[in-house]
Structures are given as C-alpha cells and as structure tokens.
C-alpha cells in the first residue's frame, strides 16, 4: 500500500499541511503536493475506473502524460471534470471525486463490461447495434450514453474570468529543465529577448531526481545558480505554470497559464492564454517514459518506473512497500536505487534483456537485489490493487516460472522524446532504432516566414536522453552513469497468447489493448491514422502520450513492417487540454462582440426600445408602450408618421465622402447610373453592383461641391463599401485623383418624417426648409436652431421627409430638442420595422430583402437607375451575360393576398410539374411581406417568373403548414403612386 | 454648438492602471500627397510639421500623426476643429487634398500608470513593449480598430471609433482589473 | 497564423491585422470583352501548391492594399510589395528564383 514517508520530499513543505477530500473522505497532504502525490500519500491507490470496461485504475505517471488518474474537482458552478491529478496542485479544501463508475468507485455495475470484453473489441460500435433499427435510438444509445463519457458536466455558468495576452520575443524556450535553463542562459547572455516557460510549478525538470553532475557541480546547485543568473537578466522573462500548447505558423505559440486553480474565487483570472510570437522557439520539453504491454499492466499499483522514483524523491511518497521493477533498459534501475535509498524493498528487477552489464544494474545487484534477466511479466495478480506478478520467459508464451508477491510494479519500456511542438507545424521525425524512438530530424525543421527553421530542439526532447548528451549538446559538461542499450520490447512475453493480449493495455484512458490493434491490422487497417480512429488509440484526453509509440510498434509488428514504415499519427495542439474559458477570454457577455451605439442609443434604451441587430449595431425595432405588443407599436408608429410626424435614428447609414478631380468619373464607375452629372446641391438615388453584376448596395448620393460627393450606403454596408472604394482606387485606378473618407460615425442622422415634418423644423428655426428653398432631392446646410446641420430632402417612406445630419456629439441634444418641440405636433419615434413597412408600402427595395447576392437591378425594375449612356460601370459587363438577359429571370412585383392575410416570410409560389430532383417547380418567391396598417391588409413584394407581364393574375403561395394562399400580382407601389406626399 | 457630448463623457475606471475616456477631442483627417510643398506650407502655418512615417508629433497641445502614406490625423481641441478644418481646406485648395473634421467619429482614451503597457498587451497583437515614444501604432483592440501611442512616460493614448467606445471601455476596464497584472 | 510586413507603412503584424483579398495581378475585363476573357477574370483563379501572388489589405493598420509573394505550402513569404503594379516586380521575381530555382516563373 502506498504511504507518506517520514522524511524527504524535495517539493513538499511539511510545515504547511493541507486538507482535502476524495469522494467525501477527508485526506491530508502538504503544500507542494500534486493531487496524485497527496492521494498516494494517503494510501489511495485506486482513484478511478476506466472509460470502456470500468476497470479499477490507479495513478500511472507523475506528469502531463497521466492517462488514468482524472478526477472531478470542485463543486457546483466550479465543478470541473477530468482534472489530471498528476498536474493539479493540491490546495486547502480541494474537493475531488473519482469518475466513470456507478454507484461507487469500489462497486461499479459497469464493470460487467470487463467480463464481456470479448464482445466489445475495437470498432464494436461499427459492428453491433445495427438491428433492429429503432433499438439504436431507444435502447442502445441511451445505455451507451449512460455508461460512456468521461466525467460529469457542470450545470451552471462558469463564474470565473479568463484572459488572453499577446507577447513577443526573439527566443522562446519551452521547458524549464536543465536543457531549457542552459538554452535560456545562452540566449540571454547573447542579449536576446528571451522567454522561458515551464508547465509545472518547479524548475529543473527531472534531473534533480535522476541525479548527476553539471559543469562540475551537483545538478541542483547548477540549477540554482542558473536560475539566479537568469532572474538577474532584464532581457529574460521566466514563468512557471505556463504550458506551450502548440507551435503554429510563423512562430506563433499558444501558451496556457494556470493562475488561480488553487485559489478558486479569488477574483484573479483563472487561466490566461498567451499568444506568443517568437522569432525562434527552442523546445526543451524532455521525454516521456513508455509503459510495457503485459497482462494486467493497468491494475492499480502498476506505474511508470520514473513516476515511482518521482513520488519517492519529490514528494516523499512510497507507492508500495514491495516493488517489482520490470524493464528493457538501464534507466529503470535508478528507480531501484531510489527505492532502496528510501529504505523500501525492491522484490526483484525483471529485465527483458538476456544480459545486464551496465553500471546501474551492477549497482543494484551490488545492493543485494534479485535481477531476473531474459524475463518478463506474464500477468499481474490483483484486481483493485497489485498483489503479485507471475514471471515468465520473455521469449516464451507466458508460462509462469515464478510468482513474486508485491504491491507495486514499476515498469519502463524506454523513453520517447516529447516532439509535439516540433511536429505541430511541420517538423519531421526520424526513427532511432538503437533507442527505439522517434526523434526530431534537424534537417527537416518547421520553417517560418523567411523559410528558415523556426524551432530547434534540445535535451531529451531531441533524443539526447542522458545528462551528458543533453548538456553536451549545449556546450556544458555533465556526468551521469553510463547506460547500456535497451532491447526493443513492446509486449510481454514476446509470444503472448490471446488471453494475455486481451488484458495488455496500450491506451489506458480509452481501454485499447494489444489485441485491439492486432485486430485492426487483421481487418485491413494498414494506415496508422485509420487504426487510430478505428481503435480510438491515442484519441483520449491524454492524446496518446503513453500509448502512441507502443501502439504503432504493435501495429507495425502485426503488419510485418518496420516502425518507420508505419509512421506516426499527427501531433496536434494543444499539448495538454486547455480550458474553453481561456479560449473565450474576455469575449463573453457584453464583450462577446462589439456593440456599435449611435449617439442617441441611451435615449432609445431609456424608452424601452425593442432591438433589431443590424451588423454590429442594435437599432430600435419599435418603441412599445406599456401594454402594447410589438405589432401594435409598429402600427401606431406608422400611422402616426403618416398622419403627424415621426423621428427615425438614421445615424447608422453609411456616409462616405468622395473628393477629387476624378471623383465624378470614379462614381460613374461605381454606380449604375450617372453621378458625375448630379448638380451641386442635389441628391440622386444610386445602385452599386459587384463585378458579377449583382446588386450589392444602394443609397442617396449628394453632391457637396464641384469636386465632392457624399455617398450614403446601407447601415450594414458602410465599411464594406468604403473598403470597396479603396480597393478600386488603390488596386485598379491608382492614377485617378480621388480621396475617400468614411464619415459614418462623424454624424448623427435623424429622419424627420411626416406631413408635419416641416412644421417641426420650422419650430427650431434658423434655416429655410420651405418647398421653394429646399425642394425634394436637394440638400442644404446651416444652423438649425443651435445645431450645425446638413439637411437632405430625401424620403424612404413616401412622406414629406428631412434627414438631418449633425456632428455626433450634438445628436442626442438634437433628438431631444425635436422630441420636445414636436410634442404639440404629435411627434413619436419610430423604429426599423415601421421604416420597413413604409418603404414596402411605397415599393422601395431593401438590400438584403429584395437582394440576396443573385439579384441584378434589372430584376427589380430598376432599369431607370441604370445608365444607358455609360460605356462601363462595375457590373455592366456581367449584366450583358446571357443568363442575366434571360427574359425568364424572375422579376419584382407587388403581391396582394385576396383575403388580406400576410404571406409568411420566405414563401414560394409552386408551379406545375417537378424538376430533375423530383422537387416541385416554383415560379416565384416572396422577398418582403408585412401587414400594412395604411392599406389595412397584408402586402408583399416578390420575384415572379414574367411577373410584370402578369399584372392582375392570381397565383398561389405557400402558407403556414400545408395551406396555400391566393395572391394577386400587382404593382409594387401600394401607397401614393404619384409621389405627391413626399413632394410637398 | 449645442450640448456637445463625447461618447462616454469621461468615464473612468481604476485598476492596476487607470483607464479613462478623455471627453471631447478635436480630430481632423487630412488626405494628401504627404510630400507636397503645399501640405508642408499649410501645416507650417499652423505651427505643425509633416510627420515621418508612423510618427506622431506634438506641438503646443496639438498633435499630428502619420496614419498612412497619404493620410494624417491632426488632434486638437474639439471646439477648434471646425475652423481649423476650414483653414486647412482653404490652404490646400490648390492641392488634390481632402480635409475633414472627424472629431465626433472617434473616442479617445488614456491608460495611465506604470503598468499601462500590460493593458494594451491583453488587447492588441502589436508589440507595445517595443513601441517607441513618438510612434503611433494602428492595430486592433480585441475585435475593433484602434490606434495608440505613448503620450507621456506613464500614459498611453488610444483612439477608437465612437460607436464602439463602450466596447473599448469594457475591454480596458476588464484588462486593467486589480489582480490581473502580468508582471 | 502568418506575419506579414506591410510595404506601405513598414509595420510587421500578425494575420489578424490584415484582410486577405485573393489572387493578385488580375486583369479586369469590362464591356466589350469576350465571354472567355470575362469568365476568366471573374472566376478562374490559380490555386498552386507553391509560389503564389496574393492581395492583402492592412485593414487594421494603414488601410492600404499590398501584394505578397508567398509559398502556399511552406508559408514562406518571399516579398511584399506595393499594389500599384500589374505584374510582380523584377526584384520580387529574382528573390523567388533564388529560393525556388525550379519555379516555372510568373504566368
């Protein structure tokens, strides 16, 4: 049984005990513990159950590679599933719960899956549950969903905050072990702007545990002095608890910093996502020890050899009283020495190699430990924890030659360099057969913006597994015990029969066994990428850190080809899971996306406006009064505007000034009609098309002076059209003398609309707005009352209408003045829906309603706004294409329901017959449809086949559900056809 | 002029840096051939230089910034902007130039304190640490356009569009909150 | 995510400060052009694995359009240059040739 040792533990502070709970049971640990070390220290060997078979599972590793020991942490809104105990720091009051079991960790109904494992092989979900069909939805899926899934989901919104930050450096060093420290020292001394980041809370990596001498000093002393020097450098930034999640194009590195996981609710950002742009990245990310595949290698108490010595040395935790070490290499003997140094027992070392001569095995033998050579583990005894191992000949088929009682098995299958960052952005690997590992191929690095290598790898991450190799690569001398070559052992014993292979786990988290990978190979999965998906090998939250190499070795053996011929799966970011909160950062709630506000927004808010989103603007849809439905409010606003006077906040309309000697020529190219001939002081409605000929925007253009025009665009189109203009001026007609400026936000714009509009403006005084001085489609400027105003006589409603532009800073004051002065005239604000209905009553088109990116002006009966004289304008050539001149293009008409009802949005008019796909043919569709309080019934506009030639014809449109609506084709102008009202 | 107000009317928040909207500020966009003698002359008459690429020069309370190869931004008192726009327009009437008052299209903020840089680091991908005094950087803050420069030793000035002033202030306030210092 | 240097203002910035604009050096065909020429102008776009010329706008910066010569496979940026040219300048071509001797050249 695991326990806390009475002395030692380089990372714990025994003066700071911490209390926490596991499944409600009170436990204690120390500051510096991880959850894993505290659980083991408290004797908790079994900490969860596996995903598929619900097998009891314990802690395997001591770092980011841990596949098993995931727990739920916290409660309620701060509950979070799948927290890796080996990397989660212990804190006072931590509440942890084990996962993947029901009703309890000790007794789990789901463990029955373990008995029926033969029926749940790789890809079982592709092969079973096929019939009866209905059973999937009602029987299989609910059962599978209940037993599957990794951890629970918090039900409440995340109360914590997160943030992102951008950082820049010349050199980013990832990994704070001795290789990273040495690399940072070198770059720092060279005066580079250096960032050094380490994912754990501690510097030094695993060298303090493994031992050795660096530059003539004890490793820890060298680390301390390196840290002191780095800390003193102004140009070096050092951070712990910051994991490099991914290396992306052009040196873009995502870093994930843990700030407040151990202090929940303290108000600080919990996690921070660093968006680092590094001139060069040096990865010093170390290596990960590989498990060995033998039957029962997942029983709690079977751990990586390096983890066993980490727990002893770092946290003074003994994983067991009697440990059996099983290995194919010399490094694992360091674990034997650590166990012996801690006064514990090594029951035996099982070495798959026939002979062991290295310094480390000799040292272990010299201390009286049995070393069994050429042996393997046939089977682990025990279910919820290890009770012993059956020993067999590695070369055989698993016949037990001996059983050794033990409560811990420390396994080592060699080491794999952590090559993730190198590989994320295209760095290639090469197979090192002597060490049985993929290592970075320096000749094929990931390349950056200038085409040169953007990353280099140092230390164990580069395959330099020993301390002298690691430090030697960085020009520093170091000493550690010589190590003899390992033996390539992927499975124990070499000839393990089915019964053993069915219990030999490769991917602990996804319960993928040797037998599953071999089955995939038999079934024809030759690509490692396909095998991965079929078996789910390496697809769990640990992303196969322990299983990938072993899995592809087993696959290669099954396919009878060398490992490099099989290749690796793709390494994808993030290196370890990162929180969605950190990805979202500040972009939630009010800051989810920018909200654009007009100068009068606060007034609309105070009046309880109902909103309509328009781009990033939020415009009043209507201003409902107490007890009024939105529909009633819209009707009231329309009726009042048509009878008295209404105010519309039109500030969102695009306002782009175009000036220069070639401005007229330029606008003639942009608009379908002629703008160069517009007299100063006048306004003209214009259409803009893209080069496909499709209508993209419209608006009123005013000529301000001989060489200056002001172009109004749609609310959603202002930035786009401004960009469109700049594009043509910069990239096509760069010799034309034209400047444009987007003045959309400089002006608040208020439409004063209705028969009493002129009365209202006259009450403010200061400007002559009479019909004679300011007729329809003209503009003027001056002082309207106390306001600096430019007034346009334009109308989108068919009423007498003025659009008043004032500097945005005066917008609210003008609005309030108009409301106050207009009170006696019955002034009311109106919203976008009233605007829409009134323009539809007049048959005016709306970009986005009548247009959808496939509609040309000719479709909308707007030929009057297309110049016949101009030889060219944007879209003209396209409008000459045969499809565009096809007389059978659907054309705009008005639609009037016979019963007065409103046609549903999006209705189509079916035609006789069916198309090639067996769908009913159509002859038209509705583009705008409203209830018109002015007309007293439903009105609509739509595009109909040969529509203008079918005036008075009755056709059917689809209604709600299956009902059809009888509709008469009419002129689209429903109100004041002669335009008398707007022209008074 | 009547009851002119800025977008946020001087809203201020205290955190590890102080973030504030500065109230009404005058701004004039000048588009012109920046090498033209007429421009140099027109600006000289106002006591202002033609700034070099990416530079912002401050003379007696007014600043002039290089915004693009054919665009300058003149920052002045809000009530001075209309007349100054007129004067410059007139002075540049012989040039192909566009001078427009954009004072009300913008909102201006200051970020003040020793750690002001850290607020910008959280919002803009630009490398604020290497931004020299006297240089203006046009970039973005989260999802909207912004320009910023060091207006004195512990202050960064930042300009955004007026309509998103509330969004920008929200970003600044969150980013400057106590406890979220980076270093 | 790329970094690009805007040749108009000299700022080096990350991709999020720019807006992409598709293939560079398109020749506009207007009224009077043949159906084939016009179709090519509107729709036919190169999609090479390797050297490519493309339009970018420094949207969050100086607002200027510029052109980039880039390897779509390795993402190497050979050069960025002003948009006011109908074909890649000779020095840009030379830079690419130096890095990609096998490149078949522009067009």
UniProtKB/TrEMBL annotation, chain A:
It comes from the Bacteria. It holds the Pfam family Fer2_4. Residues 916-925 have a biased composition (Polar residues). Keywords: Oxidoreductase. Residues 503-586 form the SoxA A3 domain. One of its GO terms (biological process) is tetrahydrofolate metabolic process. Residues 601-870 form the GCVT N-terminal domain. Residues 906-925 are annotated as: Disordered. Belongs to the GcvT family. This is Sarcosine oxidase subunit alpha. Residues 891-976 form the Aminomethyltransferase C-terminal domain. It comes from Thioclava pacifica DSM 10166. GO terms for molecular function: sarcosine oxidase activity.
From TrEMBL, chain B:
It comes from the Bacteria. InterPro entries: SoxG, TrmE/GcvT-like. Signal peptide: none annotated. This is Sarcosine oxidase subunit gamma.
Automatic annotation (TrEMBL), chain C:
InterPro entries: SoxD, SoxD_sf. One of its GO terms (molecular function) is sarcosine oxidase activity. Coiled coil: none annotated. One of its GO terms (biological process) is tetrahydrofolate metabolic process. This is Sarcosine oxidase subunit delta. It comes from Thioclava pacifica DSM 10166. The lineage of its organism: Bacteria, Pseudomonadati, Pseudomonadota, Alphaproteobacteria, Rhodobacterales.
């Amino acid at each position: 049984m695991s326990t806390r040792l009475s002395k030692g533990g380089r990372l714990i502070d025994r003066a700071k005990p911490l209390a926490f709970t596991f499944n409600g049971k009170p436990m204690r640990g120390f500051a510096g513990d991880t959850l894993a070390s505290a659980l083991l220290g408290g004797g908790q060997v079994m900490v969860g159950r596996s995903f598929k078979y619900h097998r009891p599972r314990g802690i395997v590793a001591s770092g980011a590679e841990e596949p098993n020991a995931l727990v739920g942490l916290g409660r309620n809104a701060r509950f979070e599933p799948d927290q890796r105990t080996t990397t989660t720091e212990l804190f006072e009051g931590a509440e942890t719960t084990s996962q993947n079991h029901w009703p309890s960790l000790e007794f789990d109904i789901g463990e029955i899956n373990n008995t029926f494992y033969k029926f749940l092989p790789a890809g079982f979900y592709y092969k079973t549950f096929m019939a009866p069909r209905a059973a999937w939805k009602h029987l299989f899926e609910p059962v599978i969903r209940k037993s599957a899934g990794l951890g629970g989901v918090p039900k409440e919104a995340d109360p914590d905050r997160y943030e992102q930050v951008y950082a820049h450096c010349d050199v980013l060093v990832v990994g704070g072990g001795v290789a990273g420290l040495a690399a940072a020292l070198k770059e720092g001394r060279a005066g580079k702007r250096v960032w050094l980041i380490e994912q754990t809370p501690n510097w030094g990596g695993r060298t303090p545990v493994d031992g050795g001498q660096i530059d003539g000093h004890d490793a820890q002393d060298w680390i301390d002095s390196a840290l002191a020097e780095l800390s003193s450098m102004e140009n070096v930034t050092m951070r712990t608890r910051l994991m490099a999640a991914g290396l992306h194009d052009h040196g873009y590195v995502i870093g994930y910093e843990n700030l407040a996981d151990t202090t929940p609710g303290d108000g600080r950002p919990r996690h921070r996502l660093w968006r680092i742009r590094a001139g060069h990245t040096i990865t010093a990310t170390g290596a990960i020890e590989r498990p060995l595949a033998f039957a029962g290698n997942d029983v709690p108490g079977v751990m990586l050899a390096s983890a066993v010595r980490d727990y002893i040395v770092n946290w003074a935790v003994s994983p067991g009283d009697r440990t059996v070490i099983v290995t194919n290499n010399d490094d694992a003997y360091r674990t034997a020495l650590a166990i012996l140094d801690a006064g514990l027992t090594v029951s035996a070392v099982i070495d798959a190699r026939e002979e062991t001569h290295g310094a480390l095995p000799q040292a272990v033998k010299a201390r009286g430990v049995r070393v069994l050579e050429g042996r393997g583990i046939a089977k682990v005894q025990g279910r919820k924890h290890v009770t012993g191992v059956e020993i067999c000949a590695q070369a055989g088929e698993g016949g037990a030659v001996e059983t050794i009682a033990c409560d811990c098995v420390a396994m080592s299958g060699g080491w794999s360099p952590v090559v993730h960052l190198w590989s994320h952005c295209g760095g290639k690997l090469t197979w090192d057969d002597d060490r049985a590992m993929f290592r970075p191929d320096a000749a094929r690095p990931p390349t950056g913006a200038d085409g040169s290598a953007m990353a280099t790898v140092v230390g164990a991450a580069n395959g330099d597994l020993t301390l002298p190799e690691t430090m030697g690569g960085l020009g520093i001398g170091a000493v550690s015990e010589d190590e003899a070559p390992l033996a390539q052992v992927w499975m124990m014993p070499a000839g393990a029969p089915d019964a053993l292979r069915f219990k030999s786990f490769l991917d602990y988290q996804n319960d993928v066994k040797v037998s599953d990978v071999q089955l995939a190979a038999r079934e024809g999965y030759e690509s490692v990428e396909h095998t991965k998906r079929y078996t789910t090998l390496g697809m769990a939250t640990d992303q196969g850190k322990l299983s990938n190499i072993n899995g592809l070795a087993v696959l290669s053996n099954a396919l009878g080809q060398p490992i490099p011929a099989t290749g690796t799966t793709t390494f994808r970011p993030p290196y370890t899971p990162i929180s969605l909160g950190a990805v979202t950062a500040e972009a939630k709630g009010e800051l989810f996306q920018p909200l654009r506000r007009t100068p009068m927004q606060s007034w609309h808010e105070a009046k309880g406006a109902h909103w309509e989103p328009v781009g990033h603007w939020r415009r009043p849809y209507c201003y409902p009064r107490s007890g009024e439905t939105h529909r009633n409010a819209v009707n009231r606003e329309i009726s009042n505007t048509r009878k008295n006077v209404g105010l519309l906040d039109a500030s969102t309309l695009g306002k782009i000034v175009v000036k220069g000697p070639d401005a007229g020529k330029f606008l003639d190219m942009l608009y379908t009609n002629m703008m160069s001939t517009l007299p100063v002081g006048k306004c003209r409605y214009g259409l803009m098309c893209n080069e496909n000929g499709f209508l993209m925007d419209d608006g009123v253009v005013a000529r301000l002076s001989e060489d200056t025009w002001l172009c109004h665009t749609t609310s959603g189109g202002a930035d786009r059209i401004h960009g469109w203009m700049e594009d043509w001026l910069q990239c096509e007609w760069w010799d034309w003398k034209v400047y444009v400026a987007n003045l959309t936000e400089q002006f608040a714009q208020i439409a004063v609309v209705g028969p009493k509009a002129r009365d209202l403006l006259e009450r403010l005084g200061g400007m002559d707005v009479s019909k004679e001085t300011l007729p329809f489609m003209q503009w003027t400027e001056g002082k309207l009352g106390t306001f600096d105003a430019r007034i346009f006589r334009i109308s989108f409603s068919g009423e007498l209408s003025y659009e008043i532009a004032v500097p945005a800073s005066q917008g609210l004051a003008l609005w309030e003045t108009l409301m106050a002065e207009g009170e006696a005239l019955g002034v009311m604000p109106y919203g976008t829906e009233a605007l829409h209905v009134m323009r539809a009553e007049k048959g005016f088109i709306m970009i986005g309603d009548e247009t959808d990116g496939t509609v040309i002006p000719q479709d909308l009966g707007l030929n009057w706004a297309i110049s016949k004289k101009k030889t060219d304008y944007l879209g003209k050539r396209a409008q000459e294409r045969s499809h565009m001149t096809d007389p059978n293009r659907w054309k705009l008409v008005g639609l009037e329901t016979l019963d007065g009802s409103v046609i549903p949005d999006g209705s189509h008019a079916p035609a006789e017959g069916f198309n090639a796909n067996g769908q009913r043919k159509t002859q038209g569709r509705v583009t705008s449809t409203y209830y018109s309080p002015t007309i007293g019934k439903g009105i609509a506009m739509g595009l109909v086949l040969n529509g203008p030639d079918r005036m008075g014809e009755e056709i059917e449109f689809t209604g709600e559900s299956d009902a059809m609506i009888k509709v008469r084709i009419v002129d689209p102008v429903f109100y004041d056809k002669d335009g008398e009202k707007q022209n008074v | 002029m009547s009851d002119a107000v800025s977008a946020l009317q001087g809203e201020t928040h205290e955190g590890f840096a102080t973030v504030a909207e500065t109230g009404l500020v005058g701004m004039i966009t000048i588009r012109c051939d920046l090498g033209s003698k007429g421009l140099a002359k027109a600006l000289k008459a106002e006591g202002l230089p033609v700034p070099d690429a990416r530079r912002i020069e401050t003379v007696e309370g007014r600043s002039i910034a290089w915004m693009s190869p054919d665009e300058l931004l003149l920052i002045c008192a809000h009530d001075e902007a209309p007349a100054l726009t007129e004067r410059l327009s007139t002075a540049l009437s012989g040039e192909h130039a566009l001078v427009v008052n954009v004072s009300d299209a913008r909102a201006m903020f200051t970020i003040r304190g020793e750690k002001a840089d850290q607020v910008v680091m959280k919002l803009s991908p630009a490398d604020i640490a290497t931004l020299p005094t006297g240089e203006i950087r046009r970039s973005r803050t989260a999802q909207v356009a912004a320009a910023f420069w060091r207006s004195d030793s512990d202050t960064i000035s930042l300009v955004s569009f007026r309509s998103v002033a509330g969004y920008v202030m929200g970003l600044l306030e969150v980013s400057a909150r106590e406890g979220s210092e980076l270093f | 995510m790329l970094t690009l240097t805007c040749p108009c203002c000299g700022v080096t910035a990350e991709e999020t400060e720019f807006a992409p604009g598709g293939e560079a050096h398109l020749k506009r065909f207007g009224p009077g052009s043949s159906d084939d020429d016009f179709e090519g102008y509107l729709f036919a776009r190169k999609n090479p694995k390797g050297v490519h010329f493309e339009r970018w706008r420094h949207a969050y910066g100086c607002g200027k359009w510029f052109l980039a010569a880039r390897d779509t496979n390795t993402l190497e940026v050979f050069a960025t240059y002003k948009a006011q040219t109908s074909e890649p300048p000779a020095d840009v071509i030379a830079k690419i040739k130096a890095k990609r001797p096998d490149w078949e050249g522009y067009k």
